[in-house]
Amino acid sequence: MLEIKNLHASVLDIDDSEILRGIDLKVNRGEVHAIMGPNGSGKSTLANVLMGRFDYVVTEGDVLIDGKSILKLRPDQRAHLGMFLAFQYPAEIPGVRPWQFLKAALDSKADANGEEKMTVRNFSKLFDEKVEAVGINPQLVKRSLNEGFSGGEKKRNEMLQLEVLQPSLSILDETDSGLDVDALRIVAEGVNSMRSPDRSFIVVTHYQRLLNYITPDVVHILVKGKIVKTGGPELALEVEKNGYKQYLSEVGAKA
Amino acid sequence: MTNQNTISRESDLSGGEYKWGFVTDVETDLAPKGLNEDIVRLISSKKDEPEWLLEWRLKAFRHWVKLKEEDAEPTWAKIDYPGIDYQDIYYYAAPKGMNEAPKSLDDVDPEMLATFEKLGIPLQERAALAGVAVDAVFDSVSVATTMEKQLGELGIIFCSFGNAVKNHPELVKKYLGSIVPYTDNFFAALNAAVFTDGSFVYIPPGVRCPIELMTYFRINTEGSGQFERTLIIADKGSYVSYLEGCTAPFRKTSQLHAATVELVALDDSEIKYSTIQNWFPGTPEGEGGVYNFVTKRGRADKNAKISWTQVETGSAITWKYPSVILKGDNSVGEFFSVALANNHQQADTGTKMIHIGKNTKSTIVSKGISAGKGSNTYRGQVLIMPGAENAVNHTQCDSLLVGDQCGAHTVPYIEVRNPTARLEHEASTSKVSDDQLFYLMARGLSEEEAHHMIITGWSREVFKELPFEFALEASQLLKVSLEGAVG
Fold first, then answer.
1. Which of A213, B125, B246, B445 has a CA positioned 20 to 30 A from the CA of residue A194?
2. CATH for the stretch A2-250
3. Residue B439 falls inside a structural domain
4. Residue B355 is part of which domain span?
């Protein structure tokens, strides 16, 4: 499904700002991959570059979805292919209701793929179901998108979108940061309930604790813009115990 | 029953340019260009007006001449335009055969009806289905007013200004110029001298007007000015919601529009006045466009309320300050505005809230969007007079910038002469951020859709004050008006 080949990326218009320094990664359909790493290792950059954020530039390498390069596609086109980024810091959009926003997102995806748009009635039903499932305060989704939401509410709102849009490749960018245990469980339940042979996930996280609830198929350790180790779920436990120190020394970085 | 919107243009709004730029080919009865006493007399005689009205026009004209000689054309607004040659304008342009107002729609030139069809204005029985009564003003003459009869049964008068002069002279005489006297300002004097038509509304005591009243203004003839005059009187304890829409053809020369609107809200009444102003804004290079110099003011008596809502997307220049004189105790004044300046458009708009009565309350929400090389200025005045015990004002001015060549300015004046007053002023300036755009695009919205969603969301506080169909239209207008400004 997703193949990343020797991916190098820098910050746009800034010299010597390379953050991703040759990443290779393959995520098959139905797999859950965890990407772990210390602060500043490039985890969030990777997530944003995959989704096509404008202020990064890919200098080398390629990203393929089902064998086709997506590097020239805009973020909306990537979304139409079934990609989804759950943001670490979702933007606040005053005056836009989550309902209205999600309906528009769903409609644009249907449009792009030549599918019929969901009726308002069906959408409302789906939306209400998911609001309940994600445990978001129903009053909240009548307000402005993310405006005045607490950190936890923002994350739940990301999960709400994930569940409504049903993407085939979801990238969760530190969705666990700032969450209490209950919220963490809801995020995990969302991912687990959506796990299927057709859907893939990349879970970006600093800590191992989310992985107590979501068992990944593969764990990667990202340090200084490179994947330094790949393993099974046990790798996450090892990091939990010993920290990132040993990997930092491997790439000559300071702890 | 079809669900006909007040103006259902959504389906036409796919492209990028001004959609209302077509010209209707109707024969026009034109008075010679230029302005002098003879023209004023001619207009008055064409309209078959009584002597008192001609006298009033002439006084206004002489006052205007004096102001012109004193070089008193206002220059304090932050707008920049080549001087207007007042002798190079047609002051009277009427569709031929319209000297007499048509008795029914059957008398109206089919070309003209087709124009309003094209604009999506329901003039025929569709208007009834839509639950609006429409008055259409083409160049300077009111061509059709629908549902006059049905409204008449409630004692409501909704007709062209010309008809009001003929049929309800006592009301016109009593209130004309009572809120905006011809001495008010340069453009008000000009309007009083040469106004040709407009709308007139009277709601009897205790009557709640059951439908929206709407006037649709259209400038057609090249080189003609449009000077309409609107007078709305809500008698004691009555209510009315009134809408106006405006468009003009695509012209490379500028056109002058100088209107006057007077609202009289007697004790315990309420007037809600909504405007969607979409006059031709000029070409993207800044050629042509309508110069929109408008004086709008209302007086709220005891316990009365006047609410102005405006969405200003058109015109090359907008100079407009809908105001409320809060004369009666407990009266309320509101002003909600979204003004867009794209390309070379310049908007200098705001409001005046003049608190005279006790416990008067005013609210100002102004949202200015600047894009391209547009310049947007909020100019407002809140005046608390000595007798206005416990007056309250809340003002909120927000500016949104799209791109980096536009400008936003805020000029609030506050004058308080009573220490019990409470005033709040909030202001903000923001840009559509990359984070917001990326967030929406990552969910599948195109860059244009994302911009549109962010901007209409930002304008929502004002849009929600509009009648539903109008809010939809306003949102679509913003979308069209901003095309080319993003990306």
1. B445
2. 3.40.50.300
3. yes
4. 10-482
